[in-house]
């Protein structure tokens, strides 16, 4: 086509508004965020795993999120997930028998780790980064001990090693705060995740508000028998003989608040000491949910860790 004719056509389209509307349409296509990304499922063996997937799916190492006690997909902080997804391919899922995933809930950390490995392989991933929070961090440790080649890097937040101090008592702490929250009309995470200082209380309120940002396609709440199974797993993990963590050569980022009541902060220090390639972040005036309270600081640090 002659260049003059092409210019004439483009000029006519611009005058008619066709190019402008096409450009506007393209700009209206926004990447999925945690509050809008669809929930999907994948089958591995006899389990249908419910998951959400977003971010930069451009060949980089996927980041698999492993959530805390009694949590489902909607318990991940949107600022955390969206922040990671800005640079990475991020996947969060419900383990067997939790939320919308099918099957009988596992009652040991080892069984939970096997299920995560099954999910990762069902998704077709050959290597992943693991971000485990609380019980999720215990599962992440077990995964890398079971299948070292599957894991590139680990982020372990608000968690501890097998046999760690106070871990076998998590059930008592969680149930006590569940009762406190019921009596005061609050969410248990306000007590479990945050300090009772003015900063901690306000951070808890902001966090809980963020968890409600997603309106459509919310996940199913955890069933009582799944919660009990997780408490059994935590109790056994807390009484388990300590593992040799020196065999974990992957880079590890360990993070917590300075006053974690659920998984005492000294466990984070212990992890950082026993893991040969670990970095440690401890946030002041923060508890179990310190990474959520300080998400504006933690997300950039997590991105830098995953990138290096």
TrEMBL record:
<dbReference type="GO" id="GO:0016787">
    <property type="term" value="F:hydrolase activity"/>
</dbReference>
<feature type="signal peptide">
    <location>
        <begin position="1"/>
        <end position="26"/>
    </location>
</feature>
<protein>
    <submittedName>
        <fullName>Alpha/beta hydrolase</fullName>
    </submittedName>
</protein>
<keyword id="KW-0378">Hydrolase</keyword>
<dbReference type="Pfam" id="PF00561">
    <property type="entry name" value="Abhydrolase_1"/>
</dbReference>
<dbReference type="InterPro" id="IPR000073">
    <property type="entry name" value="AB_hydrolase_1"/>
</dbReference>
<dbReference type="InterPro" id="IPR029058">
    <property type="entry name" value="AB_hydrolase_fold"/>
</dbReference>
<feature type="domain" description="AB hydrolase-1">
    <location>
        <begin position="62"/>
        <end position="292"/>
    </location>
</feature>
<dbReference type="InterPro" id="IPR050471">
    <property type="entry name" value="AB_hydrolase"/>
</dbReference>
<keyword id="KW-0732">Signal</keyword>
